[in-house]
Design goal:
heterodimer, A: 497 residues, mainly alpha, B: alpha/beta, 5-stranded parallel β-sheet, 15 helices
Chain lengths: 497, 332
């Protein structure tokens, strides 16, 4: 056996060791992938309670497992070439390509004294190397991860009842929020009149126990959702129904509160008598009590957090809307609501939406001229009419603002339309004729210097943009550098090609 | 020649190489890489360009090398008024013994084994071009007669990177003919102390001639005969191609800053330089480490930066480092 054969034989022995290590590593990662997939499947099944999804996940899991086995089998059974063995040994023992070069020369037919010398040196090196020390058969790192995942996968079914309620935390938060909302609702004055029998919607609340696979929190949501769906046959409650469908607690509570405020405002506008107590439907309370009874599917934690009367109040918020619709024949705001217009607009006095609407409401007798920008005023200035009526008297709209305090409480602070509030300034050299009231109005109200400065300031970025663009597009390259710049861009062009 | 002889030859190569290096180190302080680079140029049948600020010992290094080797040495001080004929020589009119007027060839200073082209960028491109044939073909053609130069021929040129006024940068064709471009670094405090000790006393250190022409040719033959495995050769090829911006998988820096990549001479320099480096490291095969060691001096003058690279004053070595880091080592 010559040096070449010895080198190849020794490398083959190292290759077997490497292959075993590689196989163990692949097996470990395969176990890791399979157990990880199982854990993920269990988590997903627990989180998504729908049986159709669970079935689909099961199919997906089986396909995934088959894929994992195939991939890792292909990887694990892939032969390791002696080139790779030599390269790996070089890298592991810091041999600086000695074995790789030696094996390369050993395969070649050509012979020279230096090639033979190199092969001989490579043989000596590879025989000196202890392959068991260099490539020990060790437990792959993936094995520990696989063990942990297998342990987790086997443990999950045992803790499934607790783990099976991934929304338990969120259930508590839902319960807290619902309770808080109910508390707020109690602070509001409830309706005095009981639910009209004709306008009341018959609440068909499905029994949670009849829902296959439904968890406690889901059942609670489903019941609440069904109640609102029963009420929400109109467009205005569509958002609420949608929010509940997405289990968006914050949004649900926000919408309920908003509807409650609108209802309160509409009632104030209609001048109805103050409400006294809550009169929820007795059969509704009975049904809710039945649903949230300890025998139901609702978890005990949720029941502890949500008192029955809190849930009743939360539902009552929705039911009041139904009352409002039923009794809204004489309520213009409720009419607007039914027509599907913006409910906020319906609840707000018309003059809050600007002078055009205000003029419409005032008719011919209105003194208020609104706030109208007029371009190209006297001396080319921007002339703006103020929101004062003729003679400096406040307009009728302003006097009516006192009536809108309640609406402001609903809507919050008003938004100013203009950043610059125009002031009354007399323009020199343009005196209007005596008795010409309109001329006075047009000439006297013009932009102040501050306003002009602000306008100029606002125009500055636009001007700066123009200057920058013209500077960039201008031909300002010094003559001496034009060749270099041209060559540079040509080189860029060539590179792009 | 059998294995034992080859082994002895390799040992002899290393011994001689170390001998020259040790002898040069008696005069030159530090700059071991430059000394190794100059010797590599000599043993790989190449030419070297040494760049450094004034006073770092460029000329001294080459003069010391000439003193250490039993070779014919000539020095050409490149000046702006130097003409090609001053370098390669020419025919002169001479009266023979019989009284006849004959043209006789008068060889120029390039007819030597070791040629020092001092401050090469001070001469005009026309004069610089006189060295092209000498460097590539090791011959000089005057009129219709080509004169072969005696082997070994090694041109070692120096240039100053900072005093660029009144100089003529070497054209790409000339640069490409230099096997290595070496950089003389400014000495550190300790090296400077050693330089002062050696050069400011009554006697300066002297060197002995340790290597003759025949031995150098023998060493050249051994370096050429060193085998290179295909994966390592493939690595050198990939490294050369990676310097080209038009090459698809090249590094982002190459694409952004390089105008032209290395020529095939760069790949030759990588492999031959790697061979000498491997022999210096007592190896009878070339490893990818040897190719990497040769990459900087072999490629830095063969890569041309574009306008953006020049504007950012980018060092080519930075790009070479990035290429080497991004290039995977040969696995098969």
């Amino acid at each position: 056996m010559n040096d070449r054969d010895v080198l190849i034989f020794t490398l083959a022995a190292v290759a077997r060791r490497l292959r075993l290590n590689a196989l163990l590593g692949e097996l470990a990662w395969m176990a890791c992938a399979i157990s990880g997939a199982l854990v993920l499947y269990q988590i997903l099944v627990a989180a998504i309670s729908a049986p159709a999804v669970a079935s689909a996940l099961q199919t997906l899991l089986i396909l995934l497992l088959i894929g994992v086995v195939v991939v890792f089998a292909v990887r694990g059974l892939r032969p390791i070439t002696l080139d790779e063995v030599a390269a790996t040994a070089d890298a592991q023992a810091d041999l600086k390509d000695e074995l790789k070069s030696g094996y390369c020369f050993a395969r070649q037919a050509e012979a020279s004294p230096l090639v033979d010398l190199q092969i001989r040196r490579a043989v000596l090196t590879v025989q000196r190397i202890d392959s068991r020390e260099l490539f020990p058969i060790a437990i792959p790192r993936g094995a520990f991860a696989a063990l942990a995942l297998i342990f987790a996968a086997s443990l999950l079914p045992w803790i499934a009842p607790q783990f099976g309620h991934p929304q338990s935390t969120s259930t508590d938060s839902i319960a807290t929020e619902v309770a808080a909302t109910a508390g707020k609702a109690r602070q509001l004055q409830p309706l005095s009149n009981p639910l009209p029998a004709a306008g009341r919607v018959a609440l068909e609340i499905p029994d949670g126990t009849q829902m296959p696979g439904a968890r406690g929190s889901d059942a609670a949501w489903a019941r609440l959702e069904a109640a609102v769906h029963a009420l929400a046959d109109g467009e205005e409650l569509k958002d609420l129904a949608e929010a509940m469908e997405h289990r968006d607690t914050a949004r649900t509570v926000q919408l309920l509160e908003e509807f409650e405020r609108r209802r309160e405002y509409a009632r104030a506008q209609a001048g109805g008598p103050p409400a006294d107590t809550v009169h929820a439907s007795p059969d509704l309370i009975a049904r809710l009590q039945k649903l949230f009874s300890p025998g139901g599917n609702v978890p005990q934690s949720a029941l502890d957090a949500v008192a029955e009367d809190d849930v009743v109040h939360a539902l009552d918020l929705a039911q009041r809307l139904d009352d409002m619709r039923a009794s809204g024949a004489n309520n213009p705001a409720a009419h607007t609501l039914d027509e599907g217009t913006n409910p906020l607009q319906a609840a707000v006095p018309l003059e809050r939406f600007g002078p055009r609407e205000a003029r419409r409401s005032q008719g011919q007798g209105g003194e208020f001229a609104g706030t109208t920008d007029v371009e190209g005023g006297a001396m080319g200035r921007r002339v703006t009419q103020s929101n004062l009526g003729a003679g400096g008297k406040p307009s009728a709209n302003e006097t009516s603002n006192s009536n809108n305090i309640e609406a402001e409480q609903v809507l919050g602070a008003r938004t100013m339309r203009l950043a610059v509030q125009l002031k009354q300034v007399k323009i020199e050299g343009n005196n209007p004729r005596e008795g010409d009231a309109q001329g006075v109005a047009e000439a006297a109200y013009a932009a102040t210097r501050a306003q002009q400065a602000q306008l100029g300031y606002q125009n500055a970025p636009q001007h700066a943009g123009y200057v920058t663009e013209s500077a960039l597009s201008g031909d300002r390259i010094p003559l001496a550098y034009r060749g270099a710049v041209k060559e540079y861009f040509l080189a860029l062009d060539r590179n792009q090609k | 020649m059998n294995d034992a002889t080859a082994d002895m030859q390799v040992d002899s190569f290393q011994k001689k190489f170390r001998g020259v290096r040790a002898e040069m180190a008696r005069v030159i302080v530090g700059n071991e890489e430059v000394i190794d680079g100059v010797l590599t140029c000599l043993l790989a049948r190449g030419h070297g360009l040494i760049e450094g600020v004034p006073g770092t010992g460029k000329t001294k290094l080459i003069q010391t090398l000439a003193d250490v080797l039993h070779l014919k040495f000539s020095r050409i001080q490149f000046t702006p008024d130097l003409m090609p004929g001053d370098i390669v020589g020419g025919n002169v009119l001479r009266e023979s013994e019989r009284g006849e007027k004959v043209l006789e060839f008068q060889p120029g200073p390039v007819f030597a084994n070791l040629i020092l082209a001092d401050e090469i960028n001070r001469a005009t491109p026309k004069t610089q071009s006189a060295l092209l044939e000498t460097m590539q073909e090791n011959s000089v053609t005057i009129g219709k007669i080509t004169h072969a130069l005696e082997q070994p021929v090694c041109v070692l040129a120096t240039q100053n990177p900072i005093e660029l006024e009144g100089t003529y940068p070497l054209p790409e064709a000339q640069l490409d003919r230099f096997f290595y471009k070496l950089r003389m670094e400014f000495p550190g405090a300790q090296a400077l102390d050693e330089i002062l000790d050696r050069t400011t006393q009554s006697s300066e250190p002297a060197v002995e001639r340790v290597l003759g022409r025949g031995e150098i040719l023998e060493m050249r033959a051994i370096a050429r005969a060193l085998p290179v495995a295909n994966p390592v050769k493939d690595y050198a090829i990939r490294l050369t191609l990676a310097t080209h911006p038009e090459n698809a998988p090249c590094h982002a820096m190459v694409k952004k800053y390089v105008r032209y990549g290395s020529s095939p001479r760069g790949a030759q320099a990588l492999l031959l330089g790697g061979k000498v480096h491997a022999l210096m490291q007592n190896r009878v095969y070339v490893a990818s480490e040897d190719i990497r060691a040769a990459a900087f001096p072999a490629l830095r003058h063969r890569m041309l930066l574009n306008y953006e690279g020049e504007a950012e004053q980018l060092d080519v070595d930075t790009i070479i480092s990035a290429i080497i880091e991004s290039l995977p080592e040969p696995r098969k």
